[in-house]
Design goal:
The protein is mainly β. It has one domain. The chain has five helices and 13 strands. A 13-stranded antiparallel beta sheet has the order 7-6-5-4-3-2-1-13-12-11-10-9-8. The relative contact order is 0.19.
């Protein structure tokens, strides 16, 4: 599954120790994903965000008939700091399962560059290798989400592009502001009302699965995220995310619950 698209739904966390003196709070969110009218994903997470740092943790698993077709679950977390309009990740770790394979990724960052400390299964056993030079100055997928939310909170826009590396895949991600849309009331979600629409495109550039069509894997994958402020003073969160998955097809994630712990200040 293309985690760099799925994670645009969001996060969980505890603040990095260096930010103990900064105002921060934690946003907790839950989503259910649908495809062709059926439940296919469950996602839960939280984000701790301060003016200068973030910490995130997201979990997801396939559900319904999708879980019978494809067993997939993942638990990922990241920490980092904000530097103007950029992020500087500190750490990223993910564990989970894909079909019958147990997976582990652990990345530390040195001088802004990722250093893969653990990767199981090893890259060479299933994917084409990515030269280290191509991973320089990349960020992890959760840091990309934190950056998006930070940008919308600070500027009201989501225009930008980043290169992501999750230990296995190298990808480009570009987003742009489309405008404000009114989302209708639906039984599937707790949210209805105005939301900022951000369209995005993700394209895998390296780390292709062996024996699969690289040309197909390189095709740009489009999606849309709608973000809204649910609590005055808190950052906006994705209230709906739509994306294309090569196995599940068109998937839409709907916000099903939201909670905030501690006051959050963006200034």
């Amino acid at each position: 599954m293309r985690k760099y698209l799925i994670t645009l739904a969001l996060l969980r966390l505890a603040c990095h120790p260096a930010e103990a003196a900064s105002p921060a709070g934690t946003l907790h969110v839950d989503y259910t994903g649908y495809s062709h009218g059926l439940t296919v994903l469950k996602l839960a997470g939280s984000l701790t965000l301060s003016p200068n740092a973030y910490a995130a943790h997201v979990t997801f698993h396939t559900a319904g008939m999708a879980a019978w077709m494809l067993r997939s679950d993942n638990d990922s977390q990241a920490t980092g700091t904000f530097h103007g309009e950029a992020v500087l990740p500190i750490s990223f770790e993910g564990t989970g399962h894909l079909r019958d394979s147990t997976r582990l990724t652990r990345i530390a960052y040195s001088n802004g560059n990722p250093v893969v400390e653990a990767l199981s299964p090893p890259e060479e056993s299933e994917r084409t290798p990515i030269p280290v030079a191509q991973t320089l100055h990349t960020i992890d997928t959760l840091s990309a989400v934190a950056l998006l939310i930070h940008a919308v909170a600070e500027t009201g826009h989501c225009d930008g592009s980043v290169m992501t590396f999750d230990g296995r895949r190298l990808a480009s991600q570009t987003s742009h502001t489309t405008g404000t849309e009114i989302l209708p009331k639906l039984d599937r979600t707790i949210f209805a009302g105005p939301a900022l629409r951000c369209d995005f495109v993700g394209q895998q550039l390296g780390g292709f699965v062996r024996n699969e069509d690289a040309g197909e894997l390189k095709k740009p994958r489009k999606g849309t995220a709608w973000l809204a402020n649910l609590v005055p003073g808190a950052p906006p969160v994705p209230v709906r995310v739509a994306f294309d998955n090569k196995i599940l097809g068109q998937v839409t994630l709907y916000l099903t619950s939201y909670a905030e712990t501690a006051a959050i200040s963006q200034k």
